[in-house]
Structure prediction request, 240 residues.
Amino acid sequence: MILKDMLNHSQALDRAFQALADPTRRAIVERLTQRPAPVSELARPLAMSLPAVMQHLAVLEAAGFVRSEKSGRVRTCQLNPEALSLAEQWIEARRSEWERRLDRLGDYLATLNQQGEDNG
Amino acid sequence: MILKDMLNHSQALDRAFQALADPTRRAIVERLTQRPAPVSELARPLAMSLPAVMQHLAVLEAAGFVRSEKSGRVRTCQLNPEALSLAEQWIEARRSEWERRLDRLGDYLATLNQQGEDNG
Prediction:
């Protein structure tokens, strides 16, 4: 069960980072931080066909970044910040682990330095 | 010049997120947060050929996450946290923009509510 959770989590991270690895998809996420928007409005500034935009939106939905709802003939998209948090937390944890290591290394070097002074 | 910088920045983000969209590459980054390591040591726990590991390392190097140096016959890899920061900052900026929007929306709803009470 724990292994299954780890695999699910890993696949969620695959999808999240994959979704962000494209400038059009990042532009859509950026646009949706301002307010929810219908697909047609998201497509307007983008230099591509509506089906191409829909495909990018499908990748963002699969990654959990975007939720959409259809009302009549209009599909409205909104940002779901949980997937952003997941990706952010993964990076943040690695960066802070690395910084802790640097701190420990710094402490160790300071100790060596102090011992050198004590002995010299 | 500004457009060129933006494009370079965008391509750096493409490469950074693409590099993180793979569980093996994330495992290598995780391993390197602990200490620098030779390629052979990084390859040992991974269920794949050495050339396959080298290919993942090349992707991580192109994204700026890893730097490597050859000394004699041993290539040692170490983490370069700048690319981690770049990717983290992009996500963090989007998430906080979104949270600011929610705060503004909350303020607006509170005002509407207050006006309703004042009028009722």
User: Anything to note?
Assistant: Chain A touches chain B through 33 residues (CB under 8 Å). Helices of chain A lie at 2-20, 23-32, 39-43, 50-62, 81-119. Chain A is about 70% helix and 10% strand.
